[in-house]
Write a sequence for this structure.
């Protein structure tokens, strides 16, 4: 299996001896196809004949002469021009590439690059890896791989750089252009990636891309600058510095937009006259990077002071809200004891009058017991209803101000700092409220029973009859 792939690579390299050699490769989600067109010498014909005879079933090969007739390489003469087509299956996440020309096609297809996890290249000696995909030598039959289990956060560069034409635009994602692992030795495939990567990364260090006659860029600094874009290959020697800057802006930490703004503003400062963007970038890049980092550190320090103040306000607000919940718990408990004192007072008056033999009608006391039980029940229900609505308003207000005042806290920190203490305080209130409700119902029930026990037989029969008739009427209706 490995030998046939090596033979295909050797055949392609032998065909390159022709000055008019042409390689045209197309890469799709389900297939990889390359057309080799060249005048073949004797060595190339021998190599292609071996490939023709030993090609595996997962590769299709077609050999045609100048007249577009299918032929065998062995039947052709030295110097004959042949058009050889190779085709194999491919997969959406795993690409297979035959030539350097095909690699160049892939690198300039943003849609393919952004969804690829692995690239296998024929003739590659040393693999390397970016944050978006790995690049490895092609030495086996095509195989389907599963997408990466670790979901990488895509950073859409087009949200930070304005552009007006698809001919001159930033990449859709930064990851495929950030080097993660160097190859053991640089070859033409890595150098091609490096060349395209420099071009793509340079486009991210501006505020606008203008697809005019000479391709221009804009830096919105003080003063703003409009510059000719220039040749990004100049940056190849300073690629490590470019990678460091890109990592700081887009990969490390958050606040990408802020760091991007700081950096482009510093680039625009004192830009030399009549110097294109790519030409001036090697000199301005380190200085602008250091200045942007200092500005960002100053911003962090200022933000830290504001954060400390916001946390202090949050702590104060939390203490006040917790105190209010505790106060509500005390209020409903105090109200219950006051109501209980009224019950005890009524009992004391009743039995004191009974003991003193004072002649007073007992018919009033049952109704006083009824009235007091109703009063206690309504009083506690009203208090609990008011407290419930108050807590609801408190929660809604806290939700409204959560993002506006405490957006710097993530959900976990906000949960631990603000929500959990209030939730615990509310749980304590709920326990007390439940106890108060049970006790209120018990007292009201006992007082109603006692009230009924004090009524004479005539009054009891009248009330029972009235209740029965109303219950029966309501049931029948």
């Amino acid at each position: 299996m490995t030998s046939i792939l090596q033979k295909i690579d050797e055949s392609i390299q032998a065909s390159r001896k022709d000055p008019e050699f042409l390689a045209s490769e197309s890469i799709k989600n389900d297939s990889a196809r390359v057309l080799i067109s060249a005048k073949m010498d004797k060595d190339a014909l021998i190599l292609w004949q071996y490939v023709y005879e030993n090609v595996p079933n997962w590769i299709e090969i077609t050999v045609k002469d100048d007249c577009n007739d299918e032929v065998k390489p062995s039947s052709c003469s030295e110097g004959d021009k042949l058009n050889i087509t190779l085709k194999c299956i491919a997969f959406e996440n795993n690409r297979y590439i035959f030539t350097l020309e095909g690699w160049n096609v892939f690198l300039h297809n943003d849609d393919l690059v952004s969804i690829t996890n692995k690239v296998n290249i024929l003739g590659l000696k040393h693999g390397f890896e970016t944050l978006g995909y790995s690049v490895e030598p092609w030495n086996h039959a095509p195989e389907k791989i599963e997408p990466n289990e670790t979901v990488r956060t895509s950073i859409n560069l087009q949200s930070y750089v304005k552009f007006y034409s698809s001919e001159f635009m930033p990449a859709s994602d930064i990851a495929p252009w950030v080097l993660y692992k160097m190859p053991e030795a640089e070859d033409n495939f890595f150098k091609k990636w490096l060349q395209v990567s420099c071009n793509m990364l340079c486009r991210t260090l501006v505020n606008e891309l203008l697809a005019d006659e000479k391709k221009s860029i804009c830096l919105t600094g003080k003063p703003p600058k409009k510059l000719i874009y220039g040749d990004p290959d100049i940056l190849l020697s300073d690629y490590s510095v470019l990678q460091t800057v890109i990592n700081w802006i887009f990969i490390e930490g958050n606040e990408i937009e802020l760091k991007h703004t700081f950096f482009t503003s510093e680039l625009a400062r004192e830009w030399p006259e009549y110097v294109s963007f790519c030409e001036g970038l090697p000199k301005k890049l380190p200085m602008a990077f250091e200045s942007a980092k200092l500005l960002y550190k100053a911003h962090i320090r200022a933000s830290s002071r504001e954060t400390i103040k916001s946390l202090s306000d949050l702590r104060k607000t939390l203490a006040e809200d917790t105190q209010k919940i505790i106060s509500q718990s005390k209020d409903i408990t105090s109200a219950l004891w006051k109501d209980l004192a009224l019950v005890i007072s009524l009992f004391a008056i009743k039995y004191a009058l009974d003991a003193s033999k004072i002649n007073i009608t007992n018919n009033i006391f049952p109704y006083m017991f009824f009235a007091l039980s109703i009063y206690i029940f309504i009083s506690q229900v009203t208090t609990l209803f008011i407290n419930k609505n108050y807590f609801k308003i408190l929660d809604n207000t806290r939700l409204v101000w959560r993002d506006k005042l405490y957006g710097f806290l993530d959900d976990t920190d906000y949960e631990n700092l603000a929500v959990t203490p209030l939730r615990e305080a509310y749980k304590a209130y709920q326990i007390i409220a439940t106890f108060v409700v049970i006790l209120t119902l018990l007292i009201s029930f006992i007082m109603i029973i006692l009230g009924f026990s004090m009524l004479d037989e005539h009054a009891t029969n009248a009330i029972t009859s009235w209740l029965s008739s109303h219950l029966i009427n309501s049931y029948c209706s």
User: Anything to note?
Assistant: The chain has a mean pLDDT of 82.
